[in-house]
Amino acid sequence: xxxxxxAPLAVLTRDTSxxxxxxxxxxxxxxxATGVSIxxxxxxxxxxxxxxxxxxxxxxxxxDVLLIPSAWLPDFAPYLAPVPDRILEGxxxxxxxxxxxxxxxxxxxxxxxLTIDGDLHLGAYRRDLFADxxxxxxxxxxxxxxxxxxxxxxxYREIAAFFSGRSGSDGQPLAGTLEAYARGGQxxxxxxxxxxxxxxxxxxxxxxxxxxxxxxxxxxxxGWVRALTEFLALRHAGPADVASLDxxxxxxxxxxxxxxxxxxxxxxxxxxxxxxGGAASAVAGQVGFFALPGSEEVWNPATRxxxxxxxxxxxxxxxxxxxxxxxxxxxxxIDQAWDYLAWLASxxxxxxxxxxxxxxxxxxxxxxxxxxxxxxxxxxEQQADDxxxxxxxxxxxxxxxxxxxxxxxxxxxxxxxxxxxxxMAGEISPEAGLAAAAEDWESLxxxxxxxxQRRYYRQAMGLENALPSGAPR
Length: 473
What we know:
It is found in: Periplasm. Keywords: Signal, Transport. There is one protein chain. It is built from 21 helices and 15 strands. By secondary structure, the chain is α+β, with helices and mostly antiparallel strands. Helix 17 crosses helix 18 and helix 19 runs antiparallel to helix 20. It has 2 domains: about 10-120 and about 320-370, Periplasmic binding protein-like II (D-Maltodextrin-Binding Protein, domain 2), CATH 3.40.190.10; about 120-315, D-Maltodextrin-Binding Protein, domain 2, CATH 3.40.190. The strands form 5 sheets. Strands 1, 2, 3, 4, 7 and 14 form a 6-stranded mixed sheet that branches. It has a 3-stranded antiparallel sheet with strand order 9-8-10.
């Protein structure tokens, strides 16, 4: 690599320690190692999409590297340069879990992005509270089973109800669980995670959000209604200000010892479990982990009935999917832009990041989970081994549900969020809200082109490896 001629390499990222912190840290080390000058620009998440799209549509893109959510790739892909073969064939790409590498870096059968963060939802619980003899006796008397980490949403709701209001180790009343309910606070992915187990039938892959044959929205079916109804009912097991919780509040309050459980991205494990360094956790050494709860039933979209499964089944959900790095095709420094992204996402540097609870970067490489020693040093042996076990199990599960990903993504999400606002305000029922959102999705699909959206949705859900001939390009 040689220093860029003229202007420095321009990188755009968000203005927080999450994602923005690693981008800056590794930009400095990249510049020191290569002599390539980097100018890092930051903006708020709420302005990031518009700032990028404005640059593309006006042909005035001032950046060489963009760090974006993976769900935005369909909208930006026409303006991007593909990942070069020299990076695709090396460990920077080959060491990424297939669920991220094969699903989220591609668009229209071309690798257009580099994964820099791997996202999924999992659960955390307080081992000290679950081990308390008095609590165990009371729980067994109330529910007729031992108090243990939940494997189904039904068990999860029972545990949340049991601990809600009970005194914690500090004598203060506990929340039974913590989830995000604030608009703009990642609540949409919490709803999706509740729906994953109910709406991913083993005989009908890819039908979580739409019928992949007709593109009829699936979000109004009974699986979704059950998920939303249960998600809303869990507010009663949360704190008084539950409606204002975002994911950041979920993990920080859990780390402060204010709840028996939470659902969150893998950040909770590092923030709540860390024995030293960073913000002190009130529950360090007492945290256990569980895979996203599952169900003994799943909605069958063909028969329009509930099917009983042979055993409870957990479905991993790639909530948000993670962040990716992309390079605009208009860049005059494309090679150096990809060099910087490869440096940022390298196994060595990314392993440093996943051990930092403020980085916003969650594990996405087998190599990051292979050596337990750094994790044991950070979390202690029991916490670390449990954390790694749940992550490995989730990332290699038989059923892994992909997040929604197609052109117009933000419009689809906004339409659903609008109806969630009405449901949470008590204006309409969960069933009516989802039905209204489904109507909005139908209109969006018609406006964007049903056949084109069908092709893109099927590819995003892993149902087609390549676009049919004649597909819009």
